[in-house]
Specification:
This is Lysine exporter protein (LYSE/YGGA). It is found in: Cell membrane. It is a multi-pass membrane protein. By secondary structure, this protein is mainly α. It has helices spanning 3-18, 22-38, 40-59, 61-67, 69-92, 113-121, 124-133, 144-170, 180-202. The protein has one domain (23-202). The radius of gyration is 18 Å and the shape is globular.
């Protein structure tokens, strides 16, 4: 893969990752409550979901999904249902102060991993975007598998850096959730954002 082609792909991927979506909402919500370190499992979960999308695109299933109205609709409505359920659960969550009386809790939070995986994996727009993006940067003169690997690793690394950036920006807001009222407000704000993300996804088309 030519270096200038990779740079163009890198710039495109950065824009794709920075664009706020359900993954960013998930990361910011976790970072405010658990800090940057505590949100790492959720960021890792997002990357597993993204990696599954990349793998599907790599083996050609992504193209099938992008072209099949039925498959797209099924995955889309699963994503909508999951985001709305996540938002409703967050909205109704009972505030629980940490042992030290503040919003953050020391150490990682493995329980955040799988919900984050499903946040990303149930977003069909990601697959459609990747299906449209990948062919633009593949060259017939180079091995396709190595190019796909480079593009996939670049995409995941960029998204990790962007999500850590979101978490770092959100973590200083932890003081807003140091009491029960603040945590309830935070839960309802991000619950509403998850529901809004589901509403936006419901209007998505191929």
């Amino acid at each position: 893969m030519d270096f200038h082609v990779w740079l163009t792909y890198l710039a495109t991927t950065i824009v794709f990752s920075i664009y706020p979506g359900s993954g960013a909402v998930n990361t910011i919500s976790n970072a405010i409550r658990y800090g940057v370190r505590g949100s790492v499992p959720a960021i890792a979960g997002l990357q597993l979901g993204l990696s599954i999308h990349l793998a599907l695109v790599g083996v050609g299933l992504g193209t099938l999904l992008a072209q099949s109205a039925t498959a797209f609709a099924v995955l889309k409505w699963l994503g909508v249902a999951y985001l709305v359920w996540l938002g409703w659960t967050k909205w109704r969550e009972v505030p629980q102060l940490m042992k030290n009386g503040v919003g953050q809790e020391d150490g990682p939070r493995p329980a955040l991993f799988w919900p984050a995986v499903f946040v990303n994996i149930t977003n069909p727009k990601s697959i459609v975007f990747l299906v449209a993006l990948f062919p633009q940067f593949l060259h017939a003169d180079y091995p396709l598998w190595s190019q796909a690997l480079i593009l996939s690793v670049t995409c995941v690394l960029v998204d990790i850096i962007v999500m850590l950036g979101y978490a770092s920006l959100a973590a200083p807001l932890t003081h807003l959730v140091q009491n029960e009222k603040g945590m309830r407000t935070q839960n309802r704000i991000f619950g509403s954002l998850f529901i809004a993300a589901g509403a936006l996804l419901s209007g998505a088309s191929r």
